[in-house]
């Protein structure tokens, strides 16, 4: 029985690592609480958690670029986002670890919010409310396509396609859709999540590459090598003085 319990725990933890699991729980809990609050109390307790650029900059609602990721619209909205979080997030968290995975997830989400805020003023859409984890999810899609480019994905749950091409198609759709006003979807947030995810991956892989020694380290290495060569010459001179017949054996 002990072996069965251990095996079961490991089985479920592999499909629901801590980061993905708690993100799913929090998002679903917020949706359920908000749904029943509106249904029975006719009020939304999470109204101020959505991202409204004017409120962030003029009223000081600085929590919104973070909290908007946990608020969703209809059930289809949260279903697609949570399924994508599980589908792509599990592999990334297993490879990166929970801490790095959550850092990346929230970086993409907050970065997407900053893009929405920055572009809302030129378009005079500062009072539009943005909700959902799509910015962070698009960051996960990008990372999956970059790190596992040849992994097959079922596009529209029907057609197998490599992850790298899937990301290209999704990114192109988001880019072209951003020029279509009134769609009701924040394509800027999608693109923002992918952009910040790309920058994160660039910095991460650059740090993992071979490091060039600093000028100070090079000077120190040259000095050590010079001392070693000098010590070898002194040792050879010492041997020559005390044992002249052994010259031919010294190299």
Features:
disordered C terminus, Rhomboid-like fold, 10 helices, single chain, mainly alpha, 2 strands, 69% helix
| Main β-sheet, spatial strand arrangement | 1-2
Basic shape: elongated
Number of folding domains? 2
| Helix content range | 55-70%
Task: Provide a brief overview of the structure.
The protein is mostly helical. The protein has helices at 2-15, 18-41, 53-58, 64-67, 75-96, 98-120, 134-147, 163-177, 187-208, 215-242; strands at residues 152-155, 159-162. A hairpin with a 3-residue loop joins strand 1 and strand 2 (159-162).
Structure, explained:
This protein is about 70% helix and about 5% strand. The protein has a two-stranded antiparallel ribbon with strand order 1-2. Strand 1 and strand 2 form a beta hairpin. Helix 6 crosses helix 9. The chain is elongated, with a radius of gyration of 28 Å.
Task: Set out the fold topology.
Elements lengths: L1 H14 L2 H24 L11 H6 L5 H4 L7 H22 L1 H23 L13 H14 L4 E4 L3 E4 H15 L9 H22 L6 H28 L9
Antiparallel strand pairs: 1-2
Helix pairs in contact: 2-5, 5-6, 5-7, 6-7, 6-9, 7-8, 7-9, 8-9
